[in-house]
């Protein structure tokens, strides 16, 4: 199963930063039950941030390169994500070239920080290696709200 964990790109600056969001729903299949109720698995919160980083790389390279997560130097968890939470995803390039990118990022829900990541290392792959380039560009236009996805 593939998860699309970013619903919208709110703003981005080529080669610098991207802000996006993911609206969670109780109807999604990934919730983990806990004694205090369902929570989003921590790995998927990190994946949502990594997907925001992938979109930053895709947009910054004209859809030529995409990121594949390799490692994270520092990960700090602050809070759990609950059904109905809106994840505000904020990623920034620390460095990037044709072969690799390093990102720092934060996930917030309202005014509380859920996750902070530093040194998120990703390989920069040709975007056509993983998905159809036309589908990727169509999804990008949808996330930027310049096209309705069909």
Question: Concise description?
Answer:
The chain is an alpha+beta fold.
What does this structure look like?
The protein has 150 residues and is an alpha+beta fold. Helix content is 20%, strand content 41%. The protein has 2 helices and 6 strands; from the N terminus they run ββαββββα. The protein has helices at 42-60, 133-143; strands spanning 8-13, 17-23, 65-77, 86-96, 100-109, 112-126. Strands 1-2-4-5-6-3 form a 6-stranded antiparallel β-sheet, covered by helices on one side. β1 and β2 form a beta hairpin. The mean pLDDT is 91.
Key traits:
six-stranded antiparallel sheet, 150 residues, alpha+beta, 20% helix, 2 helices
Mean pLDDT: 91
Helix and strand run:
EEHEEEEH
In whole angstroms, how far apart are the ends?
20 Å
Give the count of helical stretches.
Answer: 2
**Strand fraction:** 35-45%
Q: Identify the strand order in the major beta sheet.
A: 1-2-4-5-6-3
Helix/strand-derived category reads: alpha+beta
Helix content: 10-25%
Choose one word for the global shape.
globular
């Amino acid at each position: 199963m593939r998860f699309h964990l970013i619903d919208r790109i709110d703003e981005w600056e080529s080669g610098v930063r991207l802000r996006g969001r993911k609206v969670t729903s109780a109807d999604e299949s990934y919730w983990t039950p806990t004694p205090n109720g369902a929570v989003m698995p921590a790995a998927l919160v990190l994946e949502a941030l990594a997907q925001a980083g992938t979109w930053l790389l895709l947009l910054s390279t004209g859809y030529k390169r995409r990121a594949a997560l390799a490692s994270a130097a520092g990960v700090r968890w602050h809070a759990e994500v609950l059904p109905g939470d809106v994840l505000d995803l904020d990623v920034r390039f620390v460095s990037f070239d044709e072969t690799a990118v390093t990102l720092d990022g934060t996930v917030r829900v309202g005014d509380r920080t859920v996750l902070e990541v530093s040194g998120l290392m990703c390989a920069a792959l040709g975007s056509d290696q993983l998905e159809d380039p036309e589908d990727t560009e169509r999804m990008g236009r949808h996330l930027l709200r310049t096209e309705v996805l069909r």
